[in-house]
Amino acid sequence: MAKIRINFFVILLVSCKLGTGNNLFDPNSPASLGLLLLGSEPVVTMEFSTNRVQPGGVMYVSTNHDFTTKTNGLKLPIAGTSDNPISQIIPRSKFLYEIRMNPSVTTGRFRINLKDYYSNESLLVNPETFEFEIDSEPPILELRTGNGIDISELESGFLDIVSNEEIVWDGDLSQVSLSGTAKNTLVVSDIITSDRNIRLLFAGNPNSNGGILTISFANIKDKASNSQGTVMVPINVYAFKSGPNLNVARRSCVGVELDDGRRLVLGGKAKKDVVINGNGTLSHSEFYDSISKTFIQGPDMVYRRQEFEAIKLLDGRIFVTSGIGGKIGSSNDGLTSTEVYDPVTNTWAEGPHLSVPRLFHKMTVLPNGDVLVVGGMSPYKPIQSVGSVELVHITNNPATMTVELIGNLSDPRGKHAQILSQAAGKVIIFGGERSDVFGPLSNDFIPNALDTIEIYDINTKTLSKSQAKVYKRFNHFVHGLKNGEILVLGGINSRFDNAQPVLRAQIYNPLTDTIRDHKNLLFGREWGSSFVFPYGKDQLIVAGGLEYRTINGSTFDSIHDTESWSESSNRFYVTSRSLNARWDGCDIRYHSVGGGMILGGRVGDILGNTEEYSFE
């Protein structure tokens, strides 16, 4: 059978379009409004991306109901077949779900009967049943431009929908309809068609919020006149949106998302002349309430800290280590202290002390729940890099936690990047800055970027040096790929006047201990932020930071432009612009829905504003 393909990070298939007329999926629909006014039970609507599914393939369903709050998540009761053709349902957001098909079920038909299940849930469903056919070669469409549209500054743009064979379609604007939570974000202004390509031209509102935009095409056929009916394209629409101001402007802070959905920003350095607990280094914490869009003061940490590290433990508590600061008072010192935040009791408790003070270090939570603490820089001048690696044994009571000295890195370092490779059973440590002291004066140290990679073996608890080399870099990013490899990108290669950004990305294979060159970034940057959008194939968004723009590296600018990298296209491309060109702030990654928030930082002065990059 003739096939049509579309590519956009999520695979698009032929649609089971829900109904006609008023769209209940759209919260602004008159039908939805009428139900609210009548006080009726909410009507659950669903749109499936295909009614012909491939064994072992994927389809998507968008809905107006948040099933992530339910204990059992989204359930799709199957009828008409003895073998369940669905192997797994994965939430990609509150309203978009990925359905993975069972590869062993290769033929037949089945129904999804929503009425039988949801009548027990006090939810009304329309329609109540859907019919599906299992086909080893279903018609597939593919969108060429990533998995979504960024509307941060979009006034016009386009999407290309491509086919691997000729299509028959009138190309009439009336045959294109938009629905979903981002329905009012974009308007299709024109259509350009050819035998194997549909280009949709959009006009957009750069001040709109993001969301899921469903684009439906009516009466598309291939050359063999196999009717495709209505083709549904659920596209994620992203935007940088201005967030509320922090109660306390800060830089050098840390942000983290809690298991219960709250977002927490910790510590950092306040503006000049702002003194809290006797000092401008902060113990202050704030929660971001995504419902009220405000920041609410949280409990103070035990210690004031900046240039510290915080990480979420497997049980949901937050573990904080080192940095520079102190308890209440006017002086700052290098810290060896640790502490733990319990979100259930909303309290901080002091934990064990590390062997040496350190800042600009990194931590990784291991599969058994313990925390590996690696490297860093000493807080004293002349500044010296830290080589020690320590393992914190996590217990329910912070007072009973212990610290085990693992050993020393071959090259002491701070400002490095590290990541856990589950497949290899190792923590991989990339690059960083090494500072060697040669005299007693405050400036008697030499900082150098490193090209070495070091490895911590989880099973043997030993350190070793890789044979592979990265381009010399520090203040860079690493990103784990779905195939187990690791993308290394960004950073700069020196702290001297000849500092240059590292544009070349690299990909490291932890199983073979090899590294290869990859594409170039469009902007070299350090001190930036990165977010992942977990829909279909990964997409990495990189924002903010500093770029060194002159030949001798003596001049630098903070960066407005953002860029993306995707596994499907294996390239970097300009995404949009952030609202503020900032660096040395902190970010909170939204692990549940993708995207995140950038907080504080500085552009000359220390900032108190925030911005979100998401489609919540």
Automatic annotation (TrEMBL):
PROSITE patterns: PROKAR_LIPOPROTEIN. Pfam families: Kelch_1. SUPFAM superfamilies: Kelch motif. It comes from the Bacteria. This is Kelch-like protein. It comes from Leptospira soteropolitanensis.
